[in-house]
Design brief:
By secondary structure, this protein is mainly alpha-helical. The protein is built from 15 helices and four strands. It has two domains: 127 residues; 173 residues, hpI Integrase, Chain A, CATH 1.10.443. The strands form two sheets. Strands 1-2 form a two-stranded antiparallel sheet. A two-stranded antiparallel ribbon has the order 3-4.
Length: 340
Amino acid sequence: MRKLPVQQDRSALLEKARVYSPTWHPVTEPIAEVIRTVLVRGVQCHGQGSIVAGIPTYRVLCEVGSLLAQFLPEVLALGVDISEPQEWLTPEWASWWETGDPAARTDTRRRQARLLELVRVWMSSDPVAAYLEDALTPKRRLYRFRSEPPPPYTLHELARIFAWPEQLPTDLARYRATVVVALAFGAGLNASEIRAVKPSSISPSADTVRLDGATLPVRPEVRLALDEVRSCGLFPFNCLGYVSHLPPPAGVKVTTSRLRLTWALAEFSEGATFEDVSQRVGAAVAKRAAIRLPQFRSWPDGRELQPLVKPAQRSGEENEVGRQEQSPNWPAFRLIQGGM
């Protein structure tokens, strides 16, 4: 049996429960009174029968209070009298809350549903019996429909992503963003594969990348950029988490998964077979790209080079990347004209 956490000073917790007021989700005074009643019962019930999990800390108290401040107004809007939770709060309400918002994170809603089940236990006349009943009742797994996965980037979005590095505030950020775009869209690499790339993995003309003994072609739109960042001292590249926190281009979230999906779509549009594409990105990603292919116009042969101009460096300021003199232009991507 799981050991219950040690409760903080119960008298102090009870005092905080009696005066609790939601900060992030303001509610009316009648709802606030119900919340305070539940919190007091949660503090009092902790450890009953050595099995009842109640409210052991102020952090949990605030978590339960915030949840009730969201949950109770929605129940009230359905015409339920919420003044006596022990009369109406059943396990079905916890299931209703867990599956009610398809856009919410599944793990967050699951924890919140578990807290609502505990609220029912706290408010019962015999918390120990209610806790045992809840523990012995088989739980039916709740399946939630996933939303449709993100589509490939349009060429308009891809152009914004190509221009993204030059908008970043530091040299290091610009080069890191360039590496991610060049390898994910240029060669269809995923996050772990990008981390495995070494300078020696990239060919002198940056038209291929060697990975796990295989030689992978690199798309022409990113070769110049990849060639310029090859010697900047970033490889092996272990900063994908850092890149995900950089300011994104306007209206576009940059992810390696969507860049790989766009790579697959580009390859299909230029005549690649399903077998070739699926060997690189997997059958599931290749299928998603193939479904989008009828909506995609042919990519033209002519692609203009669009250099990403480097802002002038301040006098006496050292470079962040390798502290070497840089070329007059940032790594350049070829912007593609046409497409979706």
